[in-house]
Amino acid sequence: AETPGPVRRPLHNIPAPLTMLLGRERELGWLREVLLDPAVRLITLVGPGGAGKPRLAQAVGAEVATAFSHGAYFVSLASVSAETGVVTALLDSLQVTGPRQFQPFEQLQEFLRDRELLLVLDNFEHMLGQVILLQQLLPTAPQVKLLVTSRARLHLTAEHAIGIEGLPVP
Question: So what's the pLDDT on residue 47?
């Protein structure tokens, strides 16, 4: 009998779409290009609720996942409370396990330090009080890119904010 090879983890945890992405070809192409630009580390898709920010972020994240040696990870912050925090949600989504020898944020920094990946953070608007975490994370994880969806800008120096509006109705 042939021995199966090692089980490879998928290069992303981005949810499979239930529908086709329609009418966003231009944004998808431009966003793909920006995400692959080495000079860009933080992109925020900013727009009103219902504009399709998560769906666009998921589509482009799945498309570019293979461009990052450690893939792309989707982190939904919709049900995260300020007490639970962004850091815990990130650790859970990244499946960081092992003894917690550091504080959670230090453990996250250590885990990401040498990894090349894309983090897609969805619904950041109610976590704006924790935006400092993103600012502190970027310099310690030089090969990590952040794609954030929010109803409001993050107002960070590294931020490239992209306005997303709803699709026109014929």
Answer: 93
